[in-house]
Structure formats: structure tokens, C-alpha cells
Amino acid sequence: xxxxxxxxxxxxxxxxxxxxxxxxxxxxxxxxxxxxxxxxxxxxxxxxxxxxxxxxxxxxxxxxxxxxxxxxxxxxxxxxxxxxxxxxxxxxxxxxxxxxxxxxxxxxxxxxxxxxxxxxxxxxxxxxxxxxxxxxxxxxxxxxxxxxxxxxxxxxxxxxxxxxxxxxxxxxxxxxxxxxxxxxxxxxxxxxxxxxxxxxxxxxxxxxxxxxxxxxxxxxxxxxxxxxxxxxxxxxxxxxxxxxxxxxxxxxxxxxxxxxxxxxxxxxxxxxxxxxxxxxxxxxxxxxxxxxxxxxxxxxxxxxxxxxxxxxxxxxxxxxxxxxxxxxxxxxxxxxxxxxxxxxxxxxxxxxxxxxxxxxxxxxx
Length: 365
Ligand code: GDP
Fold this sequence. Notes:
This protein has 365 residues and is α/β, with parallel strands linked by helices. Among the domains are: 6-96, Rossmann fold, CATH 3.40.50; 190-352, Rossmann fold (3-Layer(aba) Sandwich). Helix content is 47%, strand content 12%. The protein is built from 13 helices and eight strands. The chain has helices at 6-22, 46-59, 72-82, 89-100, 104-118, 126-132, 148-187, 203-211, 254-259, 261-268, 284-296, 318-327, 342-352, and strands spanning 63-66, 85-88, 192-197, 228-233, 239-244, 272-278, 306-311, 331-333. The strands form two sheets. The protein has a six-stranded mixed sheet with strand order 4-5-3-6-7-8, with helices on both faces. The chain has a two-stranded parallel ribbon with strand order 1-2. α3 links the parallel β1 (63-66) and β2 (85-88). The chain is globular. GO terms for molecular function: GTP binding; GTPase activity; metal ion binding; ribosome binding. This is GTPase HflX.
């Protein structure tokens, strides 16, 4: 469903399809519904929902993925019509993050985000009943005000909350280790550069070019989940660290922004940000905005100088490159693939690294 322009909706749908493929699905068909507001009962509206049912049956799909967030009742309403599983954008993104989390911390963060998403969506009539009972704590309700279904849900909720509290503690306990690592890098005066940018923009590829490291490069969204720290050198041989971060995506579920705040802190502590942009994407400015929205949420990140790296120059239209160059004065045109513009980028990085602290030598006679 969209109330916006057809092009914007198509870009968003194409991205959703790419996300679904990253999650391991095969995309069979797409349906676009234009209306002012989503239908409260079936999201698409009755007529369109039945049309979707036909399409689902014709192509043999087992899941419908919707390009926005669904209220629990809308999801059920649509499921009742189409007769297959209905998943919303947030659930899909959470699923991908779950598949790609590698570190213990990353895994804990994704699980926390998934539970946060699940908690308000547990179905049951307990919801309104407990409100009637004056919001008393679970287990202490008046007789007759609680059915067995509610008890079960309350129990599930309690278990989930307990698990969430445990995960939060675990994550908190892991944070100091990373902080110590960061601090030791700082006291050693190694400047740090963070690579940020929309998912699939070419961050990992660029990291490889700049460091000769062999990071997995994948034509899929979210190949990178946990921050990777690599050593790199300027042309003059000055050492700095390069941090690759989580892929940014439009409408990143707020549960995830929260969960990944600690990983994103790396960006907030960097001396310089390389903001990588896929210049061949149909809406590069939209991607910049999406990334900036996430960065604005990270303490200190908005004050850090950003070099906009216009990547995929080998694919981009010259007019687009010219437009982006004039829009973003501190930018450089590169292709991580054909390795053009890399020297210019390295020079620009060297120019914008903080000046090395003067060495103070005390000569003891
Ligand atoms: P990330 O998600 O930002 O880390 O992006 P990746 O580095 O994994 O790259 C995503 C896809 O874009 C991969 O298929 C890369 O091979 C491709 N890619 C990256 N840089 C370039 C480039 O300069 N030109 C072209 N044509 N493709 C690129």
C-alpha cells in the first residue's frame, strides 16, 4: 500500500524484495495498492486482499511480506483472507539480523530486539481484561476476571520480560570490553575512521580496498552486522583504524536502533566518517537522509566530519555524479570494484585525520 508516488513505492518494494532474498526467500510476485490510508481490518482493503489471495494461490507462495508495519489485528485480518503466513517489514528485518549476527553480543542484541517486537503482539483477550481489573499485577486478579488464556499469556509475558532483563544485563556486561579496546586505541593515538552508509552501498568492498583485508563482500543486504575493526595506512604511512558498521536501511525498526546502539557507538567515537553512497542507486539522496537519521541518534556522531564517498562510479550516470558532487562539497567519486578514485580518497582521508599530537620528550640530563 502507498499514499506516495509510484516511483518511491517501487523503489521501496524492490528493496523489500532484496531484503526477502537476503533472508533466503524466493520472491514470486508483487502487488501495489494505492489508497489514502491502510485498511484497519485487512491493511489492503477487502477487495485487494481477495485479489492477493488469488495471486498467492496462482504462484504457490507460502508467505506474504508487507512493506510496512502491521498492527496485530491487520496481520490476522489479512492472514484470514489470504490463508498463508503474513509477515511485516520489521519482522523480516529482524529475521535477517538474526541470521547474520555472529558475535555473542550481536546475537544477544538481536534476540532482545525480537522479544521487544513480540511482546506487544502476543495475542489474547487478556489485554482488555487486565485493564478492567485495574491493571493489577499478574496472578493477583479477582476471581472470574481472568480466563486460562490470559494466565498463559501473562506467564509468557513474564517469561519474556525476564529473558529481556537477562539479555540486557549480558549486553551491559560485554560493553566494558569494547570500551577498553577503544580506549587503548585512543591512548595509543591511532586515529579512527568509521565507514557508514546505506546497506549494499559498498562499505565492505571499500574496506577491502583500503586495507587489503578479506572481508566477506556480498550482494545482499546486511552482510555486515558486527563492527569489524581493521588497520589501514595513509599514503604517507600513517596508521589509522577502519571500522565497518551495521548496514543502514530505510525505516530501520526502532527495536533494532535501540539494540544496536552499542555497536553504533563506535561511529560516535570516530575521528572521521566515510559515508559511502551507492551513486548508481535510483534514490541516492534518500539513502543519505536515511543514514543521517540513524546517525543523528548516536551520541556525538553528527558532529564528526563526513566524507561522502560516491561509490559505484562505474555504474552511475555522469549527471548523477555531477549532481551529487555539487550537493555534497566534501565528496569523492570512486569505484571500489574497478578501484578508481582510491588514491584521491586516501589523500582526502589523510587530510581530514586529526593532526598527530606533538611528541613531548623530556630530556633527563
Ligand atoms: P555493504 O553492504 O555496504 O558492505 O556493500 P558490499 O561491499 O557488500 O557491496 C554490495 C555489492 O555491491 C556487492 O555485490 C559488490 O560487489 C558491489 N559493489 C561494491 N562496490 C562496487 C562498485 O564500485 N561498482 C560496482 N559495480 N559494484 C560494486
